[in-house]
UniProtKB/TrEMBL annotation:
Pathway: Cofactor metabolism; pyridoxal 5'-phosphate salvage; pyridoxal 5'-phosphate from pyridoxine 5'-phosphate: step 1/1; Cofactor metabolism; pyridoxal 5'-phosphate salvage; pyridoxal 5'-phosphate from pyridoxamine 5'-phosphate: step 1/1. Its EC number is 1.4.3.5. GO terms for molecular function: FMN binding; pyridoxamine phosphate oxidase activity. Keywords: Flavoprotein, FMN, Oxidoreductase. Residues 2-93 form the Pyridoxamine 5'-phosphate oxidase Alr4036 family FMN-binding domain. Pfam families: Pyridox_oxase_2. PANTHER family: PYRIDOXINE-5-PHOSPHATE OXIDASE (PTHR10851), PYRIDOXINE_PYRIDOXAMINE 5'-PHOSPHATE OXIDASE 2 (PTHR10851:SF3). This is pyridoxal 5'-phosphate synthase. The keyword Cytoplasm does not apply.
Length: 193
């Protein structure tokens, strides 16, 4: 897709900045209120444009996304002055999935993460009050063990991408065309920034 080449160029140009792989993911939260959080880009799903995000299956956002699977990414690259707003449908892939291909994607994403990152899923549930700092103790995980129950892979399937380059004062809107239930090619339109 044409926007993905722009995104890859921005990732490459900003690769020296650790925060360039962080973006904000906005979803519809409880009672229809907006919910936003910073997440880490875990790559694209193979042979498509779906963006992968690791998360804890015990977090509130999982139930919220299952109820309203719409989401938008806002990703700003500080060195190249580029912003991508990517909206689409989010799929929740946890251990209860009945689709063997999705379970395989989940496992592949699990092993692509560092052992330190994987160990986060062995702690207490996110948002649970803690009486002391016992939850910070070292947690050890077998590096060869598959995904734990708390690990969840989210994939955002883009439908619209709003790209702004503030250095060149250029803005492009990319929209995926749809026929029935099937999405097809991307259309690009230059618009006023």
């Amino acid at each position: 897709s044409p926007w993905r080449a722009l995104l890859q160029r921005a990732l490459d140009a900003n690769a020296h900045l650790k925060h360039s792989t962080f973006f904000q993911l906005a979803t519809v939260g409880a009672a229809g209120r907006p919910a936003n959080r910073t997440v880490v880009f875990r790559g694209f799903q193979e042979q498509c444009d779906k963006i992968q995000i690791n998360t804890d299956a015990r977090s509130n956002k999982i139930g919220e996304i299952r109820e309203w699977p719409l989401g938008e990414i806002c990703w700003y690259f500080t060195d190249s002055w580029e912003q991508f707003r990517i909206s689409g449908i989010i799929d929740v892939i946890d251990g209860s999935s009945l689709d063997p291909a999705k379970l395989q994607q989940r496992e592949k994403a699990w092993f692509a993460s560092s052992v330190k990152s994987r160990s986060q899923y062995l702690g207490q549930s996110p948002g649970v009050p803690v009486a002391n700092d016992d939850h910070i103790k070292d947690v050890h995980i077998d590096p060869s063990a598959g995904p734990v129950d708390a690990y969840c892979l989210l994939t955002l399937d883009p439908e619209k991408v709003d790209y702004v380059n503030l250095k060149s004062n250029q803005r492009l809107m990319f929209t995926r065309t749809q026929e029935g239930d099937e999405f097809n090619d991307w259309m690009a339109e230059k618009v006023s920034p």
